[in-house]
Each structure stands twice: as structure tokens, then as C-alpha cells.
User: Fold this.
Amino acid sequence: MIQTAIEAAKAAGKILLENFDKNKEISVKDDKSLVSNIDIACEKKIEEIILEKFPEHDFLGEENDRIDKGSDYKWVVDPLDGTNNYVNEIPMYGVSIALAYKDEPILGVIYLPFFDELYTAEKGKGCFLNEKKRMEIKEKPLDQSLVLMSSHYLKLNTPDALRLVQKVYKTFLEIRITGCAVFNVAMFLKNSFGGGASTNVKPWDLAAGVVMAREAGGIATNHNGDDWTINDDRIVIGNKVCHERILEIVQMENKND
Assistant:
């Protein structure tokens, strides 16, 4: 299964690289996010490769490709994470492919084409960069740790959301917003970031990243502190120390909602 996911991710990555600096057909979705003809082409290629090998599995893609056959196995795909970056020729973008079993992510592949970095993980088998280097989450003091925050907190523009961001900012070294979940995961696996929090999460955003975080020794939960599944729309991810503190802040603010 992992080799099929790798093949699909690299095929989509090739399309992304070939079209990175070319004109694209862009439209705006109902949620105001962008989608391009390249997103759609990549999803079709991924779907084709995966379902040729596993025709009995369910398939959930960001760009409206949903196939429900009643299987316990579901492929969850973001063919181009970081579309806003991509169409503006910012190289923080990538492909995310996950396999969930009964809603629990058990396999993940992330490919960052511009950097030619392939991240892979399977439940119980570890997480690797370019299939060779084992990734291992390490801990840092909170005041030396960068933290990732979803821009959705700022879009909410509510007192509670802004207060949450301010508390996180005061607790950690600084906050970063990259506009690309798969890039965030890669940097977390490299220990550049101690962790992060997000709301309004879609299953394809972080399903692959959750497998990787856990296999590398990190923690990924919903805002209640329960293990994150593809049915959760809020997430806290981090090393043990950062996760504990971010979750504490998030839960404190959720009580004020």
C-alpha cells in the first residue's frame, strides 16, 4: 500500500513541478480558498493510480472526488496542499496521501516536490524522510520553540480566537503561519517547530501528517485531548511538552466560548 501511495504522490508532484511557473486556470471556492486546474489534474492522477491497485477501497479527495463503497479502508487525499502558495509561486506546497482504517489514519505519504522531500509513515513502522532517514521528535524548552498556528484563528477575528493566539505567542518563542499543512508537518518532523494548533481542519489536511507525527514520537489529538481521527475538525499536534501546553491553552479558551 505504501509503495502505491508513494507512486501516486510522485506522479502528482511531477505535474506540480512542471506547472509551477506556468499560467493556471484559477477559481474561488465557496469557502474563499483557491482551486486550480492543476489541483484537479493531480487528484485525478492520484485516484487513477490508487484505485487501479485497490478498487474496493473508499476514496476521499479535496477536489470533490468521493467514492464510497462501504469499505473500512479510505484513502484521504489532498492533491495540492498550499494552493494559495502554489499559484503565487511560493514553493511551500505539496501532496498529501493517507489511508485510514475505520477512520484512524494508519499510513501517510507527503511529498514536497520543490524540495524533493518524501515523508512516509505506517502505523507501527516508523516515519522516514526519503525512505532512509528515520524521523524522531525531540523536545525543547517552551521559550525556545516556534509554534504553528492556523490562519483560521485570525479569520475568525473573535475575542476568544485572538486571545488564544496571544496566549500562545506569549508562551512560546514565536508563531509561524505558512499556509501549507504538509510543509508544517515536514518542519515539525525536522524539529524546526515544537507543535501547533488548528481549527476548521478537513480530513485531507492532516491525515497523513498525524500518522507521521505519532510514528516519530509526537502527539496528535483533537481539542478534547482524544486521539485525532479523520472525523475531527480541530487538532493540536506537538512534542510532549509543547502539545501539553498548547492543549491547555486551547481548552481554557474553549471553555470561554
Summary: The helical segments are 2-19, 37-53, 83-87, 152-156, 159-171, 181-189, 203-215, 240-256. DSSP finds eight helices and 15 strands in the chain. The chain has two domains: 2-134, 142-256.
